[in-house]
Amino acid sequence: MSTLAVDIGGTKIAAAVCDANDSIIQRWRVPTPMNADAINENIAKIYHEAVASGHTDIQAIGVSAAGNVGADRKTMTFAANIPSWLNYDLSEHIGALIGHAVPVVIENDANCAGWGEYVHGAGKGSRNMVALTVGTGLGGAIVINGELYRGSFGMAAELGHLPMVPDGDTCGCGLRGCAERYTSGSALEHFAKSAVRRRPQDAKRLMELCGGDITKLEGPMVSQAAQEGDVLGLYAFNKIGEWLGRTMAATAAVLDPDIFVIGGGVVAVGDILLEPARYNYARFLEGSAYRGHAKIVAATAGQDAGLIGAANLALR
Ligand SMILES: [Zn+2]
């Protein structure tokens, strides 16, 4: 018994045949084409290659995709990067190309990564988990009583769009003041750049790392500076950590989870991000002194969390 997991990313399609324990047996990686038909054809091709190479026991295809997935777990209702994914039955389009040999289950990418952490990573053994992926934006996944919570329209766990600041910065979603404007990889760059402009006398290291051109400053440079003890790098992490803490406190007011699992590239700095997040979580949590506090930990399932989650969810 195996599954084919597919992760449609912004630049690449990663795929893997996984065994009954969601362990990866064989991998594929191809660039993501810009149009929907070519994406479907690539996935069908990978499926046929997998079968031809001996994986004749594939029971389902689990697809992780960035965008809004309908409650039917088949339809892309909207995706910012692929305009034709508008109420688009992605499951049916892929299914048609493989003769409907196996079911094709679509899930939101943050849900897949969060579920991967729940079944095989830092969230394992918890009952109520919230996963936050700090990437370009801020992705969320919610597990309640051991089940992924999708909401009534498939739109649950959009925690990056919690309205944190009334009339705040304009978000890519069109609203203002969303959490991901203040806690994400993009926000990290923003806070670091604004600090360089305000305190050029302290910006020596960050300016070195970006080659003297502040517009070229990127998240990994800020991470490196912070890990070296650079004051502005640490300032930028304190800011996104504070907002991460505030976002988790707002989430806890609704869900009261036992654990928050923080994933994404920036969490590689560990406590540089997690300490200000924990401090501000406790600070903004309702009844903070008189209640249990959720653990706040870094993700452990790594880059394959999305594939592992997609593989596991495909058969649930
Ligand atoms: Zn938003």
UniProtKB/TrEMBL annotation:
SUPFAM superfamilies on file: Actin-like ATPase domain (SSF53067)
CC terms in the record's Gene Ontology section: cytoplasm
Entry protein name: Glucokinase
InterPro entries xref list: ATPase_NBD, ROK, ROK_cs, ROK_glcA
Keyword list, A-Z: ATP-binding, Kinase, Nucleotide-binding, Transferase
Enzyme Commission designation: 2.7.1.2
Family per record: Belongs to the ROK (NagC/XylR) family.
Pfam families: ROK
GO biological process, one term: glycolytic process
MF terms (GO), sorted A to Z: ATP binding; glucokinase activity
